[in-house]
Amino acid sequence: MDTRRSILWMIFVFSLFMIWNSWMSYNNPPVQQSTEQQQNGLQADLATPNSIPSAATDANSAHAAMSDTGNSEAATEQEIITINTDVFTILFDTKGAQVVGAKLHLVRPEDPENVQDFVLLDDGQTVYTVQSGLVGPAGKNYPNQNTLFRMVSDETEMSGDTLDVVFEAEEDGLQLRRTYTFHRGTFKIDVNDSVSNISEEPQSPSIYLQITRDNHDAPGGTYFYNTFNGFAMYTDQERFEKISFSDIDKNNASHANQANDGWISFIQHFFVTAWVPEEGKDRHYDVRKISNNLYAMSTIEPLGTIQPQSTISSNSVLWVGPQDQQQLSEISTGLDLVVDYGWLTIIAKPMFNFMTWLYSFIGNWGWTIVVLTIIIKIVLYPLSAASYRSMARMKHVGPRMQALKEKYGDDRQKLNAAMMELYRTEKINPMGGCLPIVLQIPIFLTLYRVILASVELRGAPWILWIQDLAVADPYFILPAIMTATMFLQFKLNPTPPDPMQARIMMIMPLVFGAMMFMFPSGLVLYWVVNNILSIAQQQFITRRLAKVANDDKMK
User: Fold this and answer.
1) In this model, does residue 510 exceed pLDDT 60?
2) Quick count: other Cβ atoms within 10 Å of Cβ 299?
3) pTM, to two decimals
4) Residue 552 parent element (H or E)
5) How far apart (Å, rounded) are the C-alpha atoms in residues 260 and 325?
6) What residue ranges in 311-424 does DSSP mark as E strands?
C-alpha cells in the first residue's frame, strides 16, 4: 500500500512540476535589452572577429589583421543587394559580401500553394548575420567583412535550377572572388572562395567563416516551453557541443579548438544557420563575446602559401533554413543533431524516424500520431491487460475489503497484512491502477520532445480547428476532452481503500488537464486517443471477466 501511494505521489509531483515550469516560462520570458543598448557600440564591432587565433600566424597578428579596415570613402558606397530564389529572399551587404538578411519561403507538403514567410537572418532590431573573409600576418589587410566588395554577376532572380551570385574585392595584394551558388528546392548554399595572389611576393592568408548573433530570443517562439537558443558545433573527436550565451558570458564555453572536420552553427527553435567547411583541412574554432550583447562563432583555416599570379580555392556550405533532418544529415556528419531532443535523443530519434515512415503512407501528421498511439497501445497490450484484469478483480473484492476495514478499524498494520493476504489469494496486483500511467510517462516525454523539436510538425494541420500540431489547441477542446476521458477512466477503476490515494486519483485528471492546456495539440491528441483506447480496452476486459465469473456460477 505504501508503494502504491508513493508512486501516485511521484506522478502527482511530476505533474505539478510540469505545470509550474510551463507557468514560469509563460510569466517570466527572458528580458530583452533595449534597441538603444543593442546598437551601442555595435557599428564599429559588428561581427569583427577580433579574438580568433590564427592557425597560420600568431594570435596578435590575426587580431590586428581582422580589425576594422574599411575606409570612410568605401563605406559610403556600400549597398544592400536583394537576391530572390524559390525558397529565399537573401540580402547581401556589399561591405564584406556578407549575408545580412534571409527570409525563408516555407511550404508544407499538404498545402504547396500556401507559402509562409519566416525571417531568419536579420540586421535590424535583432542582429543575426553570417560573414567570411581573409586574415594574414600583421600589417596585411586582406579582403574581409569590412572590405567593400563589388557584385560582378548580373542575375538577382533565379530562373533555372541554380543561381550564382559573385562578389570580388582586392586588397594588399590578394583578390578574393566569392561565389554563392543557390539551388532550387533547397536551403543549402554552396560557397566558393577563390583567392588570387596579384602581388609580386608570396602571400599566406587564412580564411574564416563566422556566424554573428545577439542574445535576443528568437522571434516566433512560444511562452510555454523553452528550447535551446545558442551556438553549436561538431567535430568527430568531441562530437556535438552546445554553447549558450551564458556559457560565453561566464567564460565557461568549453569546446573543441582544433580539428580537420566539423562545422559551426547557431540553432533556435525549428531553424539553424550552419557553416560547413571542407573536410580534411585543419582549422581553428572560436566562440566569443564581441560587444555588450553581441556574440560570434568562427572557424579559421590556413590556405597555405600562394605564389605570385597563383590561385587557391576554398569550398564550404552555408545552410540557412529549417532543421530538416534528412537534408542536414546529407550535408555533413552530425549536422542533423541540431534537432535538439535533449537527453531523450536515444529514444526520440527512433520514434521520429518511425513517425516519418508512417507519415510517408498517411500524409497527415495528426493521423500519424493517432496511428502511432494505436501501435503503442497494441505493443503494451499484455501489460495493460494484466493491469486491467487486476483492477477488475479488485473491484470484485471491494465488499470484502470494506469488511476488513470495519473489522480492523484503525489498526493499520493488521489491516495491511489482511489486505495483502487477500491480494495474494485473489491474484490481485495492488499496483495495477498505477501501471498504465507509469508506462505512459516515458512515452509521453519522448513524444513531447519529438513534437517540440521537429520542424516537420511546425504548422502541420490535423482536422477542423487543429491547424498546427506544434502549438496549443486554440480553443482548448482537446484538453477538455482529455480531462473528461481521464475522469471517466478513473471512475471505471475501483476506489482505492486508502482515502489519500482516492483523493490523489481524483485530482490527477485536473492536474494533467491543466498541463494539456499549455502543451502542443499533437501531444494532447496522443493522450486523448490513448485514453479512449484505454477505456475501450478496460471495458472489454472487465466484461469478459464478468462473463467468465457468471459462467462459473452457472456451472
Assistant:
1) yes
2) 25
3) 0.75
4) helix 521-554
5) 23
6) 311-322
